[in-house]
Write a structure and sequence with these properties.
This protein is mainly beta and 181 residues long. 13% of the residues lie in helices and 67% in strands.
Length: 181
């Protein structure tokens, strides 16, 4: 996916998000913030790379079934791999994304959700004084569950997201603390 497709998707999503925020007072929009941990496994890389990441998300739930969210993440270190006898450190400098989220409330404390959107990530590989990086954009699709004990403002989110960056797949499993505002 190239940067033009990412820009086009953002151009389509931004007016919808702005319109939703403009009607927030009238429609009962719920805003959320999240901090969490994600394990990202790069499936189509040689060697196989797995990174521990920290993520932050901001979301707006327009009604009980539809919302949007933006995310940012970075790796908590690097994955050391051996490529042809050379040790290489691989890390994710950043991942940013925007998603449309569909939710289904199971009860007042639990909801399941699915999300689809676009994301961009910059990966860096370094061996000694030699380094290289690459930025790729693509689609992400995922699902998970949110649990808010006693229907309160503090909750937990568990999810899986599959990213496709220019044909390279990343499986991401995450857990996070969510706060409703």
């Amino acid at each position: 996916m190239n940067i033009r497709m990412l820009a086009a998707a953002a151009a389509i999503a931004l007016p919808m998000a702005v319109a939703g925020v403009a009607n927030a007072a009238d429609s009962g929009v719920t805003y959320t913030g999240e901090l969490g941990y994600t394990r990202a496994e790069f499936q189509d890389s040689t060697p196989s790379v797995g990174l521990n990441t920290i993520h932050a998300r901001l979301g707006a739930q327009f009604n009980q079934n539809w919302g949007v969210e933006a995310e940012a993440a970075t790796s908590l270190g690097s994955d050391k791999e051996n490529v042809g006898g050379v040790n290489v450190d691989v890390k994710m400098n950043y991942l940013v994304g925007a998603f449309v989220v569909g939710s289904y409330p199971v009860n007042e404390n639990v909801s399941v959700f699915a999300r689809v959107g676009v994301a961009s990530a910059k990966i860096e590989a370094k061996s000694g004084a030699v380094s290289a990086d690459d930025t790729n954009s693509g689609w992400g699709i995922g699902a998970g569950v949110k649990w808010f004990p006693q229907g309160g403002a503090n909750g937990v989110r568990v999810e899986y997201t599959r990213y496709d960056f220019d044909g390279s797949g990343v499986n991401a499993f995450g857990v996070g603390y969510v706060r409703k505002f």
